[in-house]
Amino acid sequence: VSDVDVCCWAYEAQTRRLRSALAENAGLIHRKDSHQRTALHWACVSGQTDIVKILISLGAEVNAEDDSQWTPLIIASSAGHTDCVTELLANGANADIATTNGQTALHYAASKNRLSIIPTLIQSGCPVAKQDKYGATPLHRAVSRGHLEVMKLLLSAKASPNVQDTEGNTPLHLAADEGHKRVYDELKRAGADPDIVNKEGKKALDMVH
């Protein structure tokens, strides 16, 4: 799992070992492994909410970033660990931080169809309009994977259906390209413009196979 013992113990929820090590050396809570992940990162990988609470109470940095700028919140959101997300946000986790690809916790939650997490992220201020380095918003991510209910949540939070990514594609283009008819129809009802052209000069309907 990790080349640092406290990270492994956090991942495996070995509470006694973890507490003992941190009692002997409090600085271990900030120790990073070869991927720059802390014990808190690893607790979030495996969804160990009790360990997350312990680590935060002992002073763990909730917004620590690994070598790809993943925070514990991004990890927990991507993995679908709702209780960890709630605990992190209650203790100052910044939902606006993005990875090296420009993707926030909301991008990953949208991609992975994390319906229970998305409202919490939105309420905490995670930006629905944030574009990653490919120009994709969380709405683009949800639509490309056909996640209808996630898409509805994002639209109800005022996500624009007409944002274009770096290829000029709107979410409507992606829905057409992937053959997600129900998603396409819902986007149209939400005000998606079918006449926007991408960099290839194609409208959404031109993307249908």
UniProtKB/TrEMBL annotation:
Keywords: ANK repeat, Proteasome, Repeat. One of its GO terms (cellular component) is proteasome complex. It comes from the Eukaryota. SMART domains: ANK. SUPFAM superfamilies: Ankyrin repeat (SSF48403). The keyword Metal-binding does not apply. ANK repeats lie at residues 35-67, 68-100, 101-133, 134-166, 167-199. The keyword Ribonucleoprotein does not apply. Pfam families: Ank (PF00023), Ank_2 (PF12796), Ank_4 (PF13637). This is 26S proteasome non-ATPase regulatory subunit 10. It comes from Geodia barretti.
